[in-house]
Design brief:
single chain, binds zinc ion, 2 helices, 17% strand
Length: 58
Amino acid sequence: MFKLACGDVMPGCAARFENTDRDQLMNQVAAHAASAHGVNEVTPDVLRAVEAQVTFVA
Ligand SMILES: [Zn+2]
């Protein structure tokens, strides 16, 4: 299971995501970032910051 705590990328945000599929997790995060944080464009820098916080728990 891939997991991400949004607060690790966006301090103060309590949203957490988990998905068995890493790409689907990133889609969930992108949708959340757009609606909750006004991040409408996932730049390479943003993508790296997010991916660095994704953890895998078997
Ligand atoms: Zn968030």
